[in-house]
Amino acid sequence: MGGNVQSGCSFSSLNGNSQNNTQCREARGEKMAATVPPVTRQITKDSHRNKTENPPVDLQEAEDCLIYDRHGVSIPFKSLYQDRKVIIVFVRNFLCYSCKEYVEDLSKIPQKALEDAAVKLVVIGQSSHHHIEPFCLLTGYSYEMYVDPERCIYQKLGMKREETFTESANPSPHVKSGLLMGQLKSIWRAMTSPAFDFQGDMYQQGGALIVGPGSQVHFCHFDMNRLDHIPINWLLQLAEVGETVDFSNKPKILHV
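Structure (tokenized):
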């Protein structure tokens, strides 16, 4: 691998490219690099994507943005990560077929694995709050979910808007539907929804953070496009969760 994961580094700092790793270390400092646990050795085996490195993330820019639960109750973003480490996944929109299938796999993470590691899992979307409960029922997701309807966090953290595709990018291992079928499913869900809307900005891209306790950023990745999800087991290992899940067929615990 040639180095540990840097705070605020993107997927590109994990792909074994020595030049990218050197740039990442210079951007964040050798002292910080030395303090991050070397858990990335297990997640670099099949990593060959050349990606543009994300800028460092300053949580203070977004800490006071309000997010809303399924009942429309607001809390500040910073309340999620003040007391413990949190994996935060930002989805594109709740109609996005690839986001739906990714969250379906997030739902398979055993609760005990997260509890044993003292790690919390949170999904944030950017629709209105009344779409949360139907999306949880649709995906089987039972962990915390909030919405940022004004895209305050998305914008302040610098997440991408519009999609960028590269020939070297590998598709998300969690997306099962092809592009055409996936889009047809999304259109059908929009048409059959009680409130016909796009359930978020259709051009907004998502991402993933591992943060806390406090404002410490352990890892960040901003999606380039709808298929550019970080593999879930990578997130679990980077968050030092002692178990991963076999998503090949049915959930099966793998001890690491």
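Residues 12 and 51 are 5 Å apart (CA to CA). The longest helix spans residues 179-192.
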